[in-house]
Amino acid sequence: TLNGKSLILTALFGIVLVYLMAIWAFLSLTEFYHNDDYKNLCESLFQCTIITLHSGLRNGDIGSVLSDTEWGSGELILFEFVYFVVILIIMLNVIFGIIIDTFGELRQIKTDTEDDIMNKCFICSIDRYTFDRLADGFEAHIKQEHNMWEFLFFLVHLNQKDPNNFTGPESYVKNCVEARDGKWFPVNKAVTLADHHKREKQAQSIVLDSVTDTQKQTKELMTTQARLVQQVANLEDALERIEKQLERNARP
């Protein structure tokens, strides 16, 4: 299950911590483990571990199964405090956090699954928005072009038909099914979208050709402009030479 490994490892770690607390109690605090009849509840390490684990978690406080705390018993006070903080606050909240996160992840997975069911084609995995924008609509696609029940009926037909009578496509699909190969499914493909993509490519080709022609015309205009600039510069040089010649001829 989801996060099951993390939950189990955390619980085991918590049990190990309780076992360490039981060892501490068995070595130093057995006199405080007794019931109302003053019968010792920590005569062995196993008994001490069970009492510490069961009573501490069930009652929510290990101090409820111990004798009343005395101000002179500082070790008992420390033992109860450590158990309460480490086991009851930290470890239990870590476990509860994992459980809550797991429910949140399961809820998110359920939401995503429902969204896929409602808004994606079961056969080609293309979303609803694409068909509504580029084709005749998502509902028309899943009912006519990629009806999942027709795919199921086709598989049933293959199972019931004599393999010797298979056509080429039927043999191909049957081999894919037996090999657990889903390449025969039209994933991310649809005839209605293929027509649109073809028209889109044609439009892109037209635009590209137009851009290419524009670039070519721009280049020709720039070449013509450079040639005209050169001609103007030549005319200016010729006019300057004529003016100088006229000035020389005008001198006495």
**Average pLDDT, to the nearest integer?**
82
> Can you write the helix and strand succession as a string?
HHHHHHHH
Beta fraction of the residues? under 5%
Give the C-alpha Rg.
Answer: 43 Å
Report on this model:
The chain is 73% helix and 0% strand. It contains 8 helices and no strands. It has helices at 4-28, 45-59, 74-119, 128-134, 138-145, 148-160, 168-178, 191-250. α1 crosses α2 (45-59). The longest helix is centred in the last third of the chain and has 60 residues, at 191-250. The chain is elongated. It starts with a helix and ends with a helix.
Question: Which properties best describe this structure?
Answer:
252 residues; mainly alpha; 8 helices
Brief characterization of the structure:
With 252 residues, this protein is mainly alpha-helical. The chain has 8 helices and no strands.
